Amino acid sequence: VHVVESGGGLVQAGGSLRLSCVVSGSPGGIPRIGWYRQAPGKQRELVAQQDHAGNSHYLDSVKGRFTISRDSAKNAMHLQMNDLKPEDTAVYYCNSVPELLSWGQGTQVTVSS
Questions:
Q1: How far is Cα 62 from Cα 99, in angstroms, rounded to an integer?
Q2: Integer-rounded Cα radius of gyration of the chain
Q3: Regions of the chain with pLDDT less than 70
Q4: For residue 17, what pLDDT is reported?
Q5: How many beta carbons lie within 10 A of that of residue 30, not counting itself?
Q6: Which of 22, 29, 41, 109 has the fewest CB within 10 Å, making it most exposed?
């Protein structure tokens, strides 16, 4: 199983980005998907998660700004990030919840003030 994240970049505070992740080799689907991030010098944290029924949960600091979604037909998931803040700067990764897949390279998100 491979995961490939994309969509990161450099954006000013208040801007938006849409991250994407494609999971290959997972014909059974993933019951619970998640987006994680790791900022420099910090531990990786779970930012958003969603189950097969579409129930979503978010880290308090991103509630109302981030939206997780999935496209099961394409084994893909997305993270729409609005009103970005400098503290959102991190490398973002997708994985299952709990983390059962091999970690991908991640995608860098940098928010300038």
A1: 20
A2: 13
A3: 25-28
A4: 98
A5: 23
A6: 41
pLDDT for 30: 82
* Contacts of residue 38, Cβ cutoff 8 Å, sequence gap at least 6: 44, 45, 90, 91, 93, 106
Query: Element (H or E) spanning 36, and its range?
Result: strand 32-38
Q: Which token pair is 113?
A: 């003030």
Residue 104 carries which side chain, given as an amino acid letter? G
With vertex at residue 96, the alpha carbon angle to CA 90 and CA 97, rounded to the nearest 5 degrees, is 90
DSSP 8-state class, residue 103: P
Q: What is the pLDDT at residue 27?
A: 47
Reading the block at residue 20, the tokens are: 């994407």
Q: How far is CA 76 from the centre of its chain?
A: 11
